[in-house]
Amino acid sequence: MMIAEIIVNSSAQELNRIFDYKVPEGYEIGKNIDIGYRVLVSFANYKSLEIGYIIGFKETSEFKCKTISKVCDRSFDEKKFELAKWMAKRYFCNLSDTLKLLVPPGTSNNIDKIKIKYERWARLSKEYKDVVNNHNIENSNYKIKSPKQQRIIDFLLENDEIPTSILFDVTDTNSTVLKALIERGICEDFQLEALRNPFLTKHIKKTSKLELTQKQKSVLDEIKLNEFSEYLLYGVTGSGKTEIYLQLIEKVIEQGKTAIVLVPEISLTPQITDRFLGRFGRVIAILHSKLSNGERFDEWRRIQNGEAKIVIGARSALFAPMKNIGIIIIDEEHDSSYKSETTPKYDARDVAREIAKSYNSVLLLGSATPDVRTYYKAKNTDAIKLLELDERISSFGLPDVQIVDLRNELANGNKTVFSNLLYNEIKKNLENKEQIILFLNRRGYSTFIMCRDCGYVVKCDNCDVSMTYHITKNKLMCHYCGAEKKPVSICPQCGSQNIRYFGTGTQKIEAQINKVFPEASVIRMDVDTTSTKNAHEIILNKFRDEKIDILLGTQMITKGHDFSNVTLVGVLAADSSINIGDYRAQERTFQLLTQVAGRSGRGDKKGRAIIQTYMPDEFSIITAQKQDYLKFYNQEIKIREKLNYPPFCDIMIAVVIGKKEAEVIDDANKIFDIFKNHFEVFAPMPAPISKINDNYRWRVLMKAKIDESKIDVINYCLADFDSQKSKDTKLSFDINPNNMS
Ligand code: ADP
Ligand code: ZN
Ligand code: ZN
Question: What distance in angstroms lies between residue 183's CA and the mean position of ligand 2's atoms?
Answer without folding.
Answer: 73
